[in-house]
Design brief:
With about 300 residues, the chain is α/β, with parallel strands linked by helices. It has 3 domains: about 30 residues, no CATH class; about 110 residues, 3-Layer(aba) Sandwich (Glutaredoxin); about 140 residues, no CATH class. It has 12 helices and 7 strands. A 5-stranded mixed β-sheet has the order 1-2-3-5-4. Strand 4 and strand 5 form a beta hairpin. The longest helix is centred in the C-terminal third of the chain and has 23 residues.
Length: about 300
């Protein structure tokens, strides 16, 4: 904005001091128009959510309806329905719908590509009015994160792939695509081994990491290297995480999945939690991977 003003000043031979002041004032008003103060927020209240919005009440109403629907579905999917009455009254989750993408990015300190985010500690979800992906993907994704973390907490040894897999799986619109892509990847033997996923923190991968070489034991048991760019690795990680969660829920049911997560919450290792919840079915990381591959094959 300052650079544009300087150019205008240089090209104007008759601009007065007062004219400059008026231009600066108008820009200040324009910039402040998208900064929403506490007094400007309007609100809609539901059973488990309070939606704060600026001016687009229609979109805010859609968000509230979808949030309440997603809450019931996700709590049921994960087997947490009987534990899920903690989001009521003063404990309702707050959803902030910012006026536009620029104000959302500025306020939430998120990257330009972000469509929404959740704050676990404050139990808040943030997005912006008219976001194309918010209702179908971002909202259920962030609600799933919050429900999952409200149940398992932050003290246990919960692997990142499980946390992200739960949220990704609860984007219902993505499930068929996930299965299709991973079935094709399995055919090409291009899947990340689960033991490598256990040690990988995709949050540390930088956009400028052009090629990443990962020592891997492939699904067919052979040893070698995977060479992937950052985007490919991150996408594959999230797809597999979602598929693993879907496998556990669809193959063995929500009650066992809830028990598995409870064991993690109570401090058990991943392997011990698997053995306890999936007795005689899943007793190791390798067995989990083998059964998951059978699930991808349709066996």
């Amino acid at each position: 904005m300052t650079e544009v003003l300087n150019i205008k000043y240089q090209n104007s031979k008759i601009q007065t001091r007062n004219q400059k002041f008026l231009i600066l004032l108008s820009i200040a008003i324009f910039l402040s128009a998208n900064i929403v103060t506490a007094e400007q927020w309007r609100e809609l209240k539901g059973d488990h959510f309070i939606v704060y919005f600026y001016e687009n009440k229609n979109f805010a109403s859609q968000v509230l309806r979808k949030a309440e629907k997603d809450y019931v579905r996700i709590a049921s999917d994960l087997g947490y329905a009987r534990y899920s009455n903690f989001w009521t009254w003063n404990n309702r989750v707050k959803i902030y719908i910012h006026p536009d993408h620029a104000s959302y990015v500025s306020t939430s300190n998120q990257p330009e590509w972000s469509e929404g985010m959740a704050d676990y500690e404050k139990k808040e979800i943030h997005s912006y009015s008219g976001s194309s992906d918010f209702l179908s993907s971002v909202l259920p994704h962030e609600i799933a994160h919050l429900i999952f973390r409200d149940f398992v907490g932050f003290e246990g040894e919960v692997p990142l792939w499980l946390d992200e897999g739960v949220a990704q799986w609860e984007e219902e619109v993505s499930r068929s695509r996930i299965k299709m892509i991973l079935t094709e990847n399995l055919r090409k033997k291009a899947l990340l081994p689960l033991k490598d996923m256990m040690d990988l923190d995709v949050r540390l991968i930088k956009d400028d990491d052009d090629r990443l070489h990962l020592r891997a034991t492939f699904i067919d048991g052979k040893h070698g290297f995977l060479i992937l760019d950052a985007d490919s690795l991150i996408n594959l990680y999230y797809l597999q995480a979602a598929s693993l969660v879907g496998f556990l829920i669809e193959r063995y049911g929500t009650d066992k999945f809830t028990d598995f997560c409870r064991q993690l919450r109570d401090g058990k290792s991943l392997v011990d939690a698997l053995r306890s919840a999936y007795t005689a079915r899943l007793s190791s990381i390798e067995e989990l991977e083998d059964k998951w591959v059978q699930y991808l094959k349709g066996e």
